[in-house]
Specification:
- With about 325 residues, the chain is mainly alpha-helical.
- It is built from 11 helices and no strands.
- The longest helix has about 35 residues.
Length: about 325
């Protein structure tokens, strides 16, 4: 999956440059979304392999590796056409990939293989992915599910790829930095992890059920991810190499800014007098959360896990 993430990162950087030079028409939200299939998802799957055994994942990574990149490229091409049935068909392989990962997660649930926290986090991550893929299809076909309009439809796809898929995998990594004998820290972390796992689904439900749940869920997501960042900072001294420390520190700092902004937005949305407008949220919160928290976090913890494996191999 590392090769897929590198190739996807090169392509995403090219798309970013092309959009800034006005060679292609991609909005900030579209660029943030494309970061997920091209970089975040393959990096998240790479991180899985560092902390969860292959038999616990319940899937052949060789199949996933060959399926993921072509499906991600199809998602990119889908944005070359205006919202239509043709654009949705181009994005369909990404939905199939997400559905495959969701099916793997359901099998893990049926088999009862989610008793450990790290496996529960990975399973929840895989379950959120097809939900985000389905919202991508709705966006590319021009649908308005439950009367939601753009950019909310595509933002929902972004939400389930980043907060839904990636954040639980960062929780898996953060758990590895807790000392084995520290039962208090582990007990608190379980509460934090529960918020990270439940928050994205509750927040999405809040948009349908009502403003009280939406406010509560948004604050739950914000508090859980800020608490997760504290665990990042606590465990950062044990990480090697130094570059891993730098990325994890950047991730922790970014999520503090992103979640404070999210909390301000949620509080303003409750009386329907937003303090921060949606386009500002996409630029500032989306960039800090997607690139700062998620991408830097995945890079840092993957580098740290790779360094640990190399260190053990050299003993």
């Amino acid at each position: 999956m590392r090769r897929n993430a590198i190739l996807g990162g090169i392509l995403w950087a090219a798309l970013l440059a092309a959009s800034r030079l006005h060679f292609v028409r991609l909005t900030t939200i579209e660029l943030l979304f494309l970061l997920a299939p091209l970089v975040v998802v393959p990096m998240g799957l790479e991180l899985c392999t560092r902390f969860v055994r292959a038999e616990q994942l319940g899937v052949s990574l060789r199949i996933v590796r060959w399926f993921q990149l072509p499906a991600a490229l199809c998602a990119v091409v889908a944005f070359w056409r205006p919202a239509s049935i043709a654009a949705a068909m181009l994005a369909l392989p990404w939905l199939c990939f997400g559905g495959f990962m969701g099916g793997v997660a359901l099998l893990n649930l049926v088999r009862g293989g989610v008793k450990k926290l790290n496996v529960a986090c990975v399973t929840t991550s895989f379950l959120y992915l097809p939900v985000g893929c389905a919202w991508l299809i709705a966006s590319r076909i021009g649908m308005s599910p439950m009367d939601f309009q753009e950019p909310i439809v595509l933002l929902t796809a972004v939400h389930f790829h980043f907060a839904g898929f990636a954040a639980p995998l960062l929780a898996v990594a953060a758990e590895s930095g807790i000392k084995k004998g520290d039962s208090v820290a582990r007990g608190i972390f379980r509460i934090v992890a529960a918020g990270v796992l439940a928050g994205p689904g509750l927040l999405a439900a809040g948009f349908v059920i009502g403003p009280r749940l939406k406010l509560s869920a948004a604050l739950l997501v914000a508090c859980s991810e800020v608490a997760l960042s504290i665990y990042f900072l606590v465990g950062i001294r044990t990480l090697r190499p130094r570059l891993a420390q730098a990325f994890v520190a950047a991730s922790a700092i970014s999520v503090l800014f992103a979640m404070i902004l999210a909390a301000v937005w949620a509080i303003g949305e409750f009386p329907l007098q937003p303090f921060v407008h949606l386009d500002e949220m996409a630029r500032f919160h989306g960039t800090a959360n997607g690139i700062g928290f998620i991408l830097c976090g995945l890079l840092g913890w993957t580098l740290a896990a790779s360094g640990q494996i190399q260190g053990e191999g050299g003993v």
